[in-house]
Structure formats: structure tokens, C-alpha cells
Amino acid sequence: MNIKPAIGQLGNKIRELREAKGLSQREFAEKMDYSTDMISNWERGKNIPSKSSIDRIADTLECSLKEHENLVAVRVTDILKKKG
After folding, report:
1. What confidence tens digit (pLDDT) does each residue in 70-83 have?
2. Which of the residues 27, 29, 40, 64 could staple to 23 if both were Cys, CB 3.0 to 4.6 A apart?
């Protein structure tokens, strides 16, 4: 049985990484120089961050290379699911 990941999986991953660093959405938004609404929309799957935003997220949250690559891969999956 092939189970497809849900649209918005990227938002869940961003939330997990943010919470693992002990940051609130407000604190994360300040570090990213984005609005809290932007962070909230990403985490709820309303918007998909750009590739450059993914790079900033990974840098801000001090992600490993593997975590960064995973964010990029999940982003592509979410984009394809949203289109399809």
C-alpha cells in the first residue's frame, strides 16, 4: 500500500524544527525578519515558502545538511500535491 504524504507536511516539519529550538512563532519570525502571520501561514500549510526562504529557515534553525535537504524535498512534494 502506497501512502502519500499530506499537503502541508512542510508546515508540520517547520513547526517541529522551530519547537525543537524552543522558539515561539513570534521569536522565530523576529529572527527570520518575517511577520508572525507568514510563519503561521507556512506552518498551517496555507502558503509554501520559497526556496530562498527554506534556506533562511534552515540557517536560522541551524539545521543539519540532511534536515535542510529534507525541507527542500518536502517543499517540492507539497508543491506537486497542491498542483495535482
Report:
1. 999 999 988 888 87
2. 27
